[in-house]
Design goal:
Radius of gyration: 22 Å
Order of helices and strands: HEHEEHHEHEEHEHHEEEHEEEHHEEEEHE
CATH architecture of the largest domain: 3-Layer(aba) Sandwich
Helix content: 25-40%
Number of domains: 2
Number of strands: 18
CATH topology of the largest domain: Alkaline Phosphatase, subunit A
Structural class: alpha/beta
Strand content: 15-25%
Distance between the termini: 43 Å
Strand order of the largest sheet: 6-5-7-1-8-11-2-12
Number of helices: 12
CATH superfamily of the largest domain: Alkaline Phosphatase, subunit A
CATH class of the largest domain: Alpha Beta
Largest sheet: 8 strands, mixed
Length: 485
């Protein structure tokens, strides 16, 4: 089941103690005959870094190969209008874990962010860590007797704000960094011991081995496994034995916006293989039928040319990518497999967002929520019982990013999306039902829709207490585009 020897961990003692006093969870919902007894649902949340909306075969890619993730979609529900809470990683991760919008948390950029000291606007004094008062999924489930592990990227603060300070019983490989020093051992991550000779282990495999060990050791206890892979974030460092196949495939690729990065493709194949191993482990220890698996990405795919093979990925037909205000920066893959509840192969086009994950998990498990929670539970969609009672989704990014973003806010209500840029307060309006590539700005031709969405956005910002950028006294038009970090 695992390529590494299972080790005894200190948290196993805690797991046994918690398991002895745990209470049972909610009754498992089903499409036909309900289970005869109550089920304590295990939760596995797989979060991939920088995975674009079309970076899976099931989402339309003909270059990347993801049979195991595709199978997960075939056995669960796939959301085609799923969004990250921001166009970069740390705020989305904070939103996933707390169910709150980044604007409310004041965690609005990746930690520690970019700096453009001579830009037109000065960014607000935002928070560089996950706020301690915000209740996380791990803390909420811990009250119900769950054992929780965070295995992989954390990137939500320094040593004073790590997973173990936010309700997790186990932290493997999580610290302040947003990308690994290396995908090949030695990894250089203080919270991940280098056990094998240099170059033998691959980071994605190692994190999966750790996850399988946790699942196996806690098969008899309700658990929450948060598995935020570092992959497919840069550096683009694939396993050598997977690379040759994709180098050969590039000769068959046509079109300027086609996906063609062989190193990135090989990293996605490694990810897919590891997801398959984890799903197999759930079957092996006979808990797959009482384990909910959620698969998501933290922002859109990176399109900047940051590898020897050129552009990292392509989000076509979406516009742009990570670090932009457009769909390519925030629309992401999102899959939920809830055995006996989600109809196999179901597809839902309801707009959903990262903040929905916490309330969904807590409704499934019967965990207690603490207000405020900005997301909506997706249970009604997963059960096929009806639409969400929600008017709009919102974004707030008062920062500059090399991916193209200047400080902006955005709102999607129904088919329409409005973007407001804070430098000059200009707006763009798009009809995503007919223009997913955001090519035709309708703000002047549809003034009533523009005014309505702008009003929603402004009211939401006020309600969130959103931090706004201010006029920069050091503004220098000649150096305004210069990033110093």
């Amino acid at each position: 089941m695992s390529r590494r020897t299972m080790r005894t961990n200190s948290w196993q003692v805690l797991a046994a103690a918690i398991g002895a006093i745990m209470t049972t969870g909610c009754v498992a919902p089903a499409l036909s005959d309900p289970p005869a007894q109550e089920t304590s649902w295990n939760i596995v949340l797989i979060l991939v870094d920088d995975l674009g909306w079309t970076d899976l075969s099931v989402m339309g890619s003909t270059f990347y190969e993801t049979p195991n993730i595709d199978r997960l979609a075939d056995e669960g529900m796939r959301f085609t209008n799923a969004y990250a809470a921001t166009t970069v990683c740390s705020p989305t991760r904070a939103s996933i874990l707390t169910g709150q919008y980044p604007a409310r948390l004041h965690v609005t950029d990746w930690i520690r962010g970019h700096e453009r000291p001579w830009a037109k606007l000065r960014v607000p004094d935002w928070l560089h860590r996950l706020p301690r008062p915000a209740l996380t999924i791990a803390e909420a489930l811990g009250r119900a007797g769950y054992v929780s592990a965070s295995i992989g990227k954390w990137h939500l603060g320094d040593a004073s704000s790590r997973p173990e300070t936010h309700g997790f019983d186990l932290n493997v490989a999580g610290d302040h960094r947003g990308q690994p020093p290396s995908y090949h051992a030695p990894f250089g991550i203080p919270t991940l011991k280098d056990d094998e000779p240099d170059g033998v282990e691959y980071l994605t495999d190692r994190l999966t081995d750790e996850a399988i060990t946790f699942v196996s050791d806690n098969r008899d206890h309700p658990f929450f496994l948060y598995l935020p892979y570092y992959t497919v974030h840069t550096p683009i460092e694939p396993e050598a034995d997977r690379l040759m196949k994709y180098e050969a495939k590039t000769t068959l690729v046509e079109g300027h916006w086609a996906q063609r990065n062989p190193g990135y493709a090989a990293m996605i194949e490694s990810l897919d293989d590891c997801v398959g191993r984890l799903l197999e482990a759930l079957d092996t220890v006979e808990i797959a039928d009482r384990t909910v698996v959620i698969f998501a990405s933290d922002n859109g795919g990176l399109v900047l040319p940051l590898s020897p093979w050129g552009r990292v990925t392509s989000n076509w037909p979406l516009r742009s990518g990570k670090g932009s205000a457009y769909e390519g920066g925030v629309r992401v893959p999102f899959i939920v497999r809830w055995p006996g509840a989600t109809a196999p192969g179901a597809v839902d086009d309801t707009p959903v967002i990262s903040a929905d994950i916490l309330p969904t998990i807590l409704e499934i498990t019967g965990g207690q929520r603490r207000r405020p929670v900005d997301g909506s539970s997706l249970v009604s969609l997963l059960l096929g019982e009806g639409p969400l009672d929600r008017e709009a989704l919102y974004w707030h990014y008062p920062h500059y990013h090399p991916g193209g973003a200047a400080p902006y806010g955005a709102v999607r209500a129904g088919r329409y999306k409005l973007i407001e840029y804070y430098e000059d307060m200009r707006v763009e309006l798009y009809d995503l039902d007919v223009d997913v590539g955001e090519a035709a700005n309708l703000s002047e031709t549809l003034p009533k829709q523009t005014a309505r969405l702008r009003g929603l956005l402004h009211a939401w910002r006020n309600d969130m207490g959103a931090q706004m950028p201010s006029e920069n006294p050091d503004y220098d038009p000649e150096r305004a585009e210069t990033f110093t970090r």
